[in-house]
Specification:
By secondary structure, this protein is an alpha+beta fold. It has helices spanning 27-45, 86-90, and strands spanning 2-9, 12-21, 49-57. The protein has a 3-stranded mixed sheet. The longest helix is centred in the middle third of the chain and has 19 residues, at 27-45. The chain starts with a strand and ends in a 7-residue tail after the last helix.
Length: 97
Amino acid sequence: MHNLRIIKYGSLLHLDCHVTVPWYLNVNEAHEEIEILGDLVRKEFGDALELFVHSDGCMEFSCRICDKFDCHVRLHALEKKVKWTVENISADHKTHG
């Protein structure tokens, strides 16, 4: 996740972000992944939060921090897990690790 923005509108929180998904997913598959994220967010926050997500395809540098082990096009082994912080998910760039 990157380029996260949260804005409070009255009693609602509006969350806007970009999420990196595998580059080989078609539009419907990427949408399904975003729906799963939305379900998790709704389970936690209910109707108090509206979520808008832009999907980005992964890039080669993502392999080194990606824990999707069933990826059939992986180019690099997982080197480290990123500890997600407000700072690195708020930045307007994909994390390189």
